[in-house]
Specification:
The chain is α/β, with parallel strands linked by helices. Strand 9 and strand 10 form a beta hairpin. The chain is built from five helices and eleven strands, in the order H-E-H-E-H-E-E-E-E-E-E-H-H-E-E-E. The protein is globular and about 45 Å long. Helices cover about 30% and strands about 20% of the residues. The N terminus and C terminus are likely disordered. The protein has a single domain, classed as Rossmann fold. Helix 1 packs across helix 2. Strands 2-7-1-8-9-10-11 form a seven-stranded mixed β-sheet, with helices on one face.
């Protein structure tokens, strides 16, 4: 797909993303045999990049991008499809199959498998929506103000997507007004020049603050 108040960070240097991954792996399953981890935030806030790095630290955990579930005609009205094609099968311990959306062709492609791995990461705007929260082991929120996130997204997608972005901003505002994710987040993730800060979220996660750096010797996955 083409100011929020935060707690004062307490940096804990030398803790790699492997530590966060290990804590997530140690959680009880939340969806059948799966620990489903949601990564939500405004469009352009860095969800996909963080989710990819977290998945790598988890040993190659599957990542479901909500951009593959939504589409031009379903910017936020994809809950039923996700529950039927992904949540239901994973909850039964079965491999889910979903047809990813091609944003250029404006059509859904051939089915893609999503196995019931020990941890599955779901990332995208709406990953923490009301209908999904009961199935999540943890909800992470990318802590970047919406205007800054949208500016990054517009810069990434270019001027040819300006009309789409105008429509998207209206839709995202309406979505979060009716179904906000940040107040339900267990953890807040901030990108820094060194890596990421992971802080307790409004939902009072039991995890302490972490400081995940690019340079720690133990974080070679970066």
């Amino acid at each position: 797909m083409f100011p929020e108040n935060s707690p004062t960070p307490h940096h804990t240097s030398g803790i790699a993303i492997h530590d966060l991954a290990a804590r997530l792996r140690g959680l009880p399953p939340s969806l059948g045999p799966v620990r489903l981890v949601g990564v939500d935030g405004h469009a352009g806030s860095g969800k996909s990049t963080f989710a990819a790095r977290l998945a790598a630290a988890l040993g190659g955990a599957p990542v479901l991008h909500l951009d593959d579930i939504s589409g031009h005609e379903q910017l936020f009205s994809w809950t039923g499809r996700l529950l039927a094609e992904v949540i239901g099968p994973l909850g039964r311990g079965e491999t889910a199959r979903y047809a990813p959306y091609d944003w250029t062709a404006r059509a859904f492609g051939p089915p893609r498998p999503l196995p019931p791995a020990p941890v599955v990461v779901i990332e995208g705007v709406g990953a923490g929506r009301r209908a999904l929260r009961p199935h999540l082991a943890r909800l992470l929120w990318m802590e970047l103000p919406r205007e800054e996130s949208w500016a990054r997204g517009r810069s990434r997608d270019g001027a040819e997507q300006s009309a789409f972005w105008a429509e998207w901003v209206r839709a995202e505002c309406a979505h979060f007004a009716g179904d906000p994710s940040r107040p339900r987040a267990d953890l807040l993730v901030r990108q820094t020049p060194e890596g990421y800060e992971v802080l307790p979220g409004p939902a009072a996660s039991p995890f302490p603050s972490l400081f995940l750096t690019h340079r720690d010797g133990s974080s070679a996955v970066w």
